[in-house]
Amino acid sequence: MPSRRNSAAAGGTSQPWGWYGAGHGQRGAGSCGHTVHARQRRRSAGAAPGGSGVTYDGKDGEDTARKIDRGPDRPSCPVSRAEDGTWQVHGYAAARSVLRSTGTVQAGLGIETVEKLPQRIRRPVLYRDGPEHREHRRQTARFFTPRRVDEHYRDLMVRIAEEQLAVLRTAGEAQLAELSFGVAIGVASEIIGLRYSRPGIRGRLERFFPEKFGEPGLTTARGVYWFFRQNTNWLRIYLADVRPAVRAHRKREHDDLISHLMGEGCSNAEILGECLTFAAAGMVTTREFICVAAWHLFTDPALLDHYRTADEAGRLATLHEILRLEPVVARLRRRTTAELQLPTPDGPVSVQPGELLDLFLDDANTDPQAVGCRPLLVRPGRALESGPGAAGLSFGDGAHRCPGSGVAILEADVFLSRLFTLEGIRMTTRPRVSFKDDIGGYEIRDLTVAIPKPEPGHKTAL
């Protein structure tokens, strides 16, 4: 039986949920008018009820095609408020409004750790806002343009994908999470400039981004353990990956992120912070997306046939639609620096400066007013009425929208389109899903893929 867990607020503790209304401060014109009822929102690890249930052409199917069971139906109220006063945003229009606002700052994704850094160290771009952040994004945008992705990274993706598939061909079976991580590491390392690493980068990253995190501290034995573990992992990546790259870049300039950071005068510690930020965004999340996309394709013959026979544009549309349904990071948190007016069907809701907002992207991405009817089904090329991207808000929006979205989708397609051309490819085990409550993320493990072993004396084609 799939295990069950309580959904945690971005702060890491479970919170009762209540509709914005009486008893929660000023009631704006956009409140839903419901009486506040406390309830627990739950999630389970495993497949959505009813198996695949996926339809790509709009035919009737199951109520949901989600593999990551995110609990009960999305709230009918697009903006609600928890008992601790945190605003919880479920509607697409309201979430997009928050992400596009210049009156908010980052308040999640581990910012509490970054805030402990000495003031002399420049924060990674993910944790900066305002003019400095916009200028950095403008200068680094050239690494992620569609033309550059196609001309500079496509051949790299093909080579790395074939290297990983060669592992599968040789062994006859493999863990998809390991293959996809190899693809993601290879591509992101080239863009970042981490091409001079000592052997073992995968293991170092696995230790730095474990399935379960502990809270570092100096008051308990467990806290001390995680404090030293975290700092040891930082040091390992610096010594084995970042420092060799910086030394090589000093000898010869490269056209990558590290060269850009060095040109800005960043210290080695600042470069380390940026590299780890991009590693999380470009390696860890891509691994999970490739796994969940493959899970959908393995378990729905109609969707797989559609993917196999489509051209590249059609395949990318399929992957965008799967990502809309299964956002790898489904929780974002912002703090307001100015008054916000959040749009709702009943009128705007006013949020005052200094308040916290939790954005539930898994709910926003299934808002029928934005994505149309049957939002929990996979329908590539669905008509999106409110103009979101094909993946909804899975890549964020506004100033902090993921710059490498085009890279992630293309590398997933390059790998998956080749994986599913392998004769006899099949999924042999039911995947295991774990959750990271602070970001609404998931990790898929034990998804084993296999192909028939070649006859003795048969040479495997590479």
UniProtKB/TrEMBL annotation:
Key words, A-Z: Heme, Iron, Metal-binding, Monooxygenase, Oxidoreductase
Biased composition (Basic and acidic residues): 57-73
Region feature Disordered, mapped onto this chain: 1-82
GO molecular function, one term: oxidoreductase activity, acting on paired donors, with incorporation or reduction of molecular oxygen
CDD domains given in the database record: cytochrome_P450
Biased segments, Gly residues type: 20-31
Gene3D superfamilies referenced in this protein's UniProt entry, alphabetically: Cytochrome P450 (1.10.630.10)
Biased amino acid composition, Polar residues: 1-16
InterPro entries the UniProt entry points to: Cyt_P450, Cyt_P450_B, Cyt_P450_CS, Cyt_P450_sf
Family under the similarity heading: Belongs to the cytochrome P450 family.
Protein name per Swiss-Prot or TrEMBL: Cytochrome P450
Biological source species: Streptomyces scabichelini
Lineage of source species: Bacteria, Bacillati, Actinomycetota, Actinomycetes, Kitasatosporales
